[in-house]
Structure formats: C-alpha cells, structure tokens
Design goal:
Layout lengths: L2 E6 L7 H14 L4 E6 L1 H4 L6 H18 L6 E5 L5 H10 L4 H5 L2 H8 L6 H4 L1 H10 L5 E3 L5 H18 L7 E3 L29 H9 L18 H10 L4 H12 L4 H15 L1 H11 L2 H30 L2
Parallel strand pairs: 1-2, 2-3, 4-5
Helix pairs in contact: 3-14, 4-8, 4-15, 8-9, 10-13, 11-12, 11-13
The structure holds tryptophanyl-5'AMP.
Length: 322
C-alpha cells in the first residue's frame, strides 16, 4: 500500500480551494493508501502572532478536516507540534541546503509582497516542509498547484542529502488533482486563508450568500454571451463540481448562449456549495460538541507519526555522524 503525506496550515478558516485541490484528494486516497495528514502549526507561526488566534485556528482546522471527511480509522491525523522530531530533521536538512534554493522560493516573495515580515522562519519555511514530508517516508504528496515548488525543493534536498550521506531519504512523488489549477478568491486572485478573499463552505447560509454575491465579474448585461473561462464564478464552480461533471458543462453552455446574468450563476454556485457540503456542515456541529473525541484522534495520529519520524531521524543522525 502506498504511503501518503500532506499538510494544511492553520492560518485561518479552510476554504473551497483547500477542499477542492487538497482535502478532497486526501478523502479519495483514504480507501487504498496509508495516510498521514497533519495541521502545520509550526508553519503558521510564520504568519500568526496571537497565541489565542493560533490555538483557535488549529482547533477549527482540525474540526473542519474531520467534518469534510478525513476518517481517523483510515488516516493518521495529527498536529505538527506533536511531532517535534521534524524540527531536528529540518536542522539536518537545512545544513545541506544551499542558500540560493531558498532565494528562489516563490512563496517567500509572494508573502513579502503581501506585506508579511521577512522572518527567518518564513524564509526557511520550505526546509521545515521538507522535514514534514521526509519524516514518514511517503511515496506520494498530494497538494494544490501552489505547493508544487515546495515538493520539488523537498525532492531536491533529499537527493542532495542522499548524495552526501547515502540513501537515507525516500524521494516522494508529487500529486496534483487532475484539472485543478489554483482556485481564485472573490477578487479573482488566488483564494487564500490570509488574503481576505476566501469562501468558507461552513459559513452560515446568509453570510455565504453575501460572500458569493461579492465575487467580481465583468459588466456584461444579462442578454450578452459570456466567456466562462475568464469568469471567477465559473472557475470556482468548476473547481468544486469537477471539470468533467455535467453541471459544469451545462453552466458553461449557459454562459456562452447569453440570457443568463451573473446573479444566476452565483445562485447556482451557492446551491452547489450548500448541497455538496450539507452532510459536512451537520458533522461539523457534532464535532464541535465532542472535544474528547477530537483529542483522542490527534493523540492516536501523533503516536503513528512519531514512530515513523523517530526511525527516519535516527537514520539521518547516524548518517551525518551524530
Ligand atoms: P495551505 O494550508 O496553504 O493549503 C493547504 C492545501 O490547499 C491547497 N490550496 C489551494 N489549492 C487550489 N487553489 C487555492 N486557492 C489553494 N489554496 C491552497 C494547497 O496547495 C495545499 O495543498 N505549506 C503548506 C502546508 C504544509 C505542507 C507540508 C503541505 C506544510 N508542510 C507538507 C504538504 C506537505 C500550505 O501552506 O498549505
């Protein structure tokens, strides 16, 4: 059985982009893979400075993931902070990492451009991510398009380490869900937990509708033919429904024909979200009322991840001469 690892940062409420590109892949893979999915709380420290906000975000992301359908019977689900060996591994990898590899990381530049402070943590973020990944010897890392470079850096670092010290790390493959590019947010930029442009499927119906109605469109009138490919509403719809889903083809057709205003397309998106996440919304309320269960899930997940991380770290320590 192939082993899978991926992570999600608790830097704000989960959104449709996280679900469509990442979490849905995890749920599909649970059936026939050995799964390690974690909440990247150390990584969130690069952006979240308020301890209460961090604790609340971690709790919320955990509950949301379980509500979406991450199944603790089939997935080892844990908090990064409960597997501190990854920070030791990050040090060993960092000592092998040429500085230029970090200089070319696009997410650091993007975050600076958004006004985040340039801490060393933010700069070396991809090294910690490489440690997360390599700590359980996974075969495959399913992520969204914006994490492609981080997985490539991981492979690169593991190869450098192996070339210097022998075969310590397994080199994992990257997996990006077919047809899922980056999902745009309500402003047409990449949907992000920290850009204020995200759509959370767990919002109250009224609030959800308000956010969807805010999605920017061009100013074409009802009767005019419209191009679905350049419309943010359509892109979000397609990301969630799927490229090959008949509802996507049908909506595209209505765009091209004319006679449908953007308000109608937005209503279709709202209904899609409410239908798709109906069961998850119910489960989420149950989970919020059962903190004991959630804690037990995380404890069990951390035990499995720690066992793997201890083996891998011991191998790496021995190889470098510690
Ligand atoms: P994060 O928390 O930003 O995102 C979690 C997952 O969601 C995907 N994603 C998107 N996909 C499509 N469209 C979007 N607008 C969009 N926004 C986010 C991401 O690609 C990701 O798969 N650095 C990681 C967390 C991490 C990690 C890891 C991931 C830490 N260690 C090890 C994999 C393996 C991050 O910030 O993801």
């Amino acid at each position: 059985m192939k082993r899978v690892l991926s992570g999600i940062q608790p830097s704000g409420p989960l959104h449709l982009g996280n679900y469509a590109a990442a979490i849905r892949q995890f749920i599909d893979m649970q059936a026939d893979h050995e799964m390690y999915i974690f909440v990247a709380s150390y990584h969130a420290l690069t952006t979240v400075r308020d301890p209460k906000v961090l604790r609340d975000n971690v709790r919320q992301v955990v509950i949301d993931c379980l509500a979406f359908g991450i199944d603790p019977q089939r997935t080892n689900f844990y908090l990064q902070q409960d597997v501190p060996k990854v920070t030791e591994l990050a040090w060993l990898l960092g000592c092998m990492c040429p500085k230029h590899l970090m200089d070319k990381a696009t997410s650091f530049k993007d975050k600076l451009a958004k006004g985040l402070s340039a801490s060393i943590g933010l700069y070396t973020y991809p090294i910690l991510q490489a440690a997360d990944i390599l700590s359980v010897d996974p075969d495959v890392v399913p992520v969204g398009e914006d994490q492609r470079q981080h997985v490539e850096i991981t492979r690169d670092l593991a190869e450098k380490f192996n070339a210097a010290y022998g075969p310590v790390f397994k080199i994992p493959d990257l997996k990006i869900r077919e047809g899922s590019g980056l999902m745009p947010g309500v402003d047409g930029q990449k949907m992000s937990k920290s850009y204020g442009n995200a759509i959370s499927p767990f919002l109250e119906e009224k609030a959800l509708k308000k956010v969807i109605m805010k999605i920017t469109t061009d100013s074409k009138g009802v009767d005019e033919a419209k191009d679905p490919e350049t419309c943010t509403v359509f892109q979000i719809f397609r990301g969630l429904a799927g490229v090959n889903d008949p509802r996507t083809a049908e909506l595209a057709e209505r765009y091209r024909k004319g006679g449908m205003g953007y308000g109608v397309a937005k209503q279709a998106l709202l209904e899609l979200i409410l239908n798709h996440f109906g069961p998850a919304r119910k489960r989420r309320v149950e989970l919020m009322n059962d903190p004991g269960y959630v804690e037990q899930v995380l404890r069990q997940g951390a035990a499995a991840a720690n066992a793997k991380a201890s083996d891998v770290t011991a191998r790496a320590r021995k190889a470098v001469g510690l």
